[in-house]
Automatic annotation (TrEMBL):
PANTHER family found in the cross-reference section: CHAPERONE-ACTIVITY OF BC1 COMPLEX CABC1 -RELATED, PROTEIN ACTIVITY OF BC1 COMPLEX KINASE 7, CHLOROPLASTIC
Keyword field: Kinase, Membrane, Transferase, Transmembrane, Transmembrane helix
Transmembrane regions: 21-43, 55-79, 584-601, 613-636
Name of the protein: AarF/ABC1/UbiB kinase family protein
């Protein structure tokens, strides 16, 4: 145990009792081997230090090797090994199945999926894109949703892939009623017949994760009940584990994977999908969006004589909502896919409906800070009372106040056709600013972009979004995930608006929204609220300002004014420098000890300690052991830092 403790201290590790015992046994075994090799004549002489040093060096080598093979904390216990083996077997089987799907659809010939590289001809790209779509559909829920996310990444994929992946749908066969009834009973604490007055066992819609049933509460209110499939979470988590492993290897081994940050993309997708699996998150998103819309409508009364909001968000029944069951208010209407003819038959103004929908989503993004991230036609309804209904808030985005302000500035710059203001707003959104010279070129490129895509008479299309994202990529700018989600939401919304009004000009309407927002900000009431908020924030600063000015003036008058700059004020910086200095000193000391030890062993003569051992030989052997210990410590430290 003493040898194990010494080896652990020298390597800077914390290990358990079992590993410490094995390390000590290894050291004792090394002591026996060295002692037998040196013979009985070495016992009781100064060469005992060589034997002890050899034992310590062997213990350190064993500990370093065992840490490399089985790192501390990686094995939680023998009892968990069978479960880990089962997971590994299941993952291997699923990976084999995915490989067969890929090979069956010819994805082995698929080149790198970057927007800048790929097949030479459009026909070949279209063929590969169709093969990829079919493979993702066959692979299941997780991969279909990944394809839907990729269908909005104009900066990563060619247009043929974008068009093909946009066709992906998550429709699936309905789950048998027995499985759905079991989920309802487990989560609600009673069979559905006892909780609801009526429950339709035939689903209205079935997706790969959940399906929706109509029901009626005991008080007579109609509700929609969304129930998660029994094994949906296990399937999604297994597939996400495989995706994350593939992404990590791709990011480590390929240049294009590192350039697009494939690991970060997949991690963000995994976090979003896991949120969707918890219906309590969807319930919270629904409440937050509804509350924000109600607060905004209360703060800015509309001139419309109808006091109801133009877009209805269903109320959530929190007492019946769990992680796998979501119960919301029932909305009577027609899905947007089939609403065009219905709206015309009822005399509804489709252009007004499209404008109300766009204003609602833009207000969520620009004003509220929480928005519907997937407003595709299946999540929008035209209600029987002539309003619109917004459904399924499982995928929602959040934007802080600073980014919302930059987005508003971006819209205002587009409205004014001001390329310099557009550049300034864009740089406020991204995470890495270019050098001043690059900033000037970016401004000129944005001017050319506006002249081509944002002039009157032009309509937004995929080419416009692709050009914008490629421009951002060209200058090495990194768009935050929440801003990318907002653009993805608007891109999806464009498709939905096109179902209501073909050739709908979303850019022109966004300009109108920006102008109306600017007028609202300049209204007396808004200016008063903004001024009040700013004054409340400034009051503590203004209260402390006179005292601080007086202190500075007094110090300046007495010649005591000074500026203190602390180098390495951050503890992490100090730890980094200490680590470098420590490793350098240890490496230098080990090298010096090794050189001196070799020189002493090569030096003839010298005092004799025993009849067979000289002083120079004893010192040389001990110094070589010291050099070996120090060198092993430095090498282990460097390899551990790299991991």
């Amino acid at each position: 145990m003493v040898l194990g403790f010494g080896a652990r201290r020298l390597l800077g590790l914390r290990i358990g009792a079992l590993r410490s015992l094995l390390t000590g046994c290894t050291g004792l075994l090394a002591t026996g081997l060295v002692s037998s090799a040196m013979g009985p004549a070495a016992a009781g002489t100064v060469l005992v230090t060589v034997q002890v040093g050899s034992a310590l060096l062997a213990a350190m080598m064993f500990l370093a090797l065992s840490e490399a093979v089985v790192p501390s904390g990686s094995v939680g216990g023998i009892v968990r090994w069978p479960r880990s083996v089962r997971r590994r077997v299941a993952r291997t089987q699923r990976f084999t199945e995915l490989s067969r799907i890929a090979l069956r659809h010819g994805l082995g010939r698929l080149p790198r999926l970057s927007g800048l590289t790929g097949p030479a001809t459009s026909a070949t790209r279209a063929e590969h894109a169709r093969a990829l779509r079919l493979a993702l559909e066959e692979a299941g829920t997780t991969f279909v949703k990944l394809g839907q996310v990729l269908s909005t990444r104009y900066d990563l994929l060619p247009a043929e892939f974008i068009d093909e992946l946009s066709l992906l749908q998550c429709a699936a066969a309905a789950e048998p009623w027995d499985g759905i009834e079991q989920v309802l009973t487990e989560d609600l604490g009673a069979p559905p017949g006892e909780v609801f007055a009526e429950f339709d066992t035939v689903p209205l819609a079935a997706g790969s994760v959940a399906q929706v049933h109509r029901a009626r509460l005991r008080d007579g209110r109609a509700v929609a009940v969304k129930v998660q499939r029994p094994r949906a979470r296990q399937v999604v988590e297994r597939d996400l584990d495989i995706l994350l492993r593939i992404a990590r290897r791709t990011g480590e081994r390929t240049a294009w994977g590192r350039s697009i940050g494939v690991t970060g993309l997949v991690r963000g997708f995994a976090a979003s999908l896991q949120e969707e699996l918890d219906f309590r998150t969807e319930a919270r998103n629904t409440r937050e969006v509804a509350a924000a819309r109600a607060a905004d409508a209360g703060g800015h009364p509309s001139q419309d004589p109808d006091p109801r909001p133009a877009v209805k968000i269903p109320a959530v029944h929190d007492d019946l909502t769990t992680a796998r069951v979501l119960v919301v208010e029932w909305l009577d209407g027609v899905a947007l896919d089939k609403a065009a003819e219905s709206a015309d038959a009822r005399g509804l103004d489709r252009t007004a409906l499209a404008g109300a929908l766009l204003d609602c989503v833009l207000a969520q993004i620009m004003t509220d800070g929480v928005f519907h991230a997937d407003p595709h036609p299946g999540n929008i309804m035209v209600l029987d009372d002539g309003r619109l209904g917004l459904l399924d808030f499982g995928c929602a985005g959040r934007i802080d106040r600073v980014l919302r302000s930059a987005l508003r500035d971006l819209l205002v710059a587009i409205h004014r056709n001001d390329q310099q203001a557009l550049c300034d707003a864009l740089l406020e959104l991204v995470e890495h600013r270019p050098e001043p010279a690059d900033e000037n070129r970016l401004t000129r490129d944005l001017g050319r972009f506006m002249a081509r895509h944002l002039v009157p008479g032009t309509r937004p299309d995929r080419e416009m979004f692709a050009a914008l994202f490629l421009l951002v990529t060209k200058y090495g700018l990194v768009v935050p995930g929440e801003i990318a989600a907002a653009f993805r939401s608007l891109s999806t919304l464009e498709v939905s608006l096109g179902r209501l009004v073909p050739e709908y000009d979303i850019v022109a309407e966004a300009r109108r929204f920006a102008a109306s927002q600017a007028r609202r900000k300049l209204a007396p009431g808004s200016l008063g609220r903004a001024a009040t908020g700013e004054m409340l924030a400034l009051l503590p600063v203004l209260r402390r300002l006179p005292r601080r000015v007086d202190r500075i003036a007094e110090a300046l008058e007495q010649g005591r004014l000074s500026v203190n700059v602390r180098v390495l004020a951050d503890e992490r910086d100090r730890d980094f420098v200490r680590g470098i200095v420590r490793d350098v000193l240890l490496a230098f000391s080990g090298g010096a000890a090794g050189v001196v030890g070799v020189m002493l062993l090569q030096t003839p003569g010298g005092p004799e300690i025993t009849s067979s051992v000289g002083l120079f030989e004893a010192l040389g052997c001990n110094l070589l052991l010291v050099a070996s210990v120090l060198t092993l410590r430095v090498l282990f430290s460097l390899s551990r830092d790299r991991r």
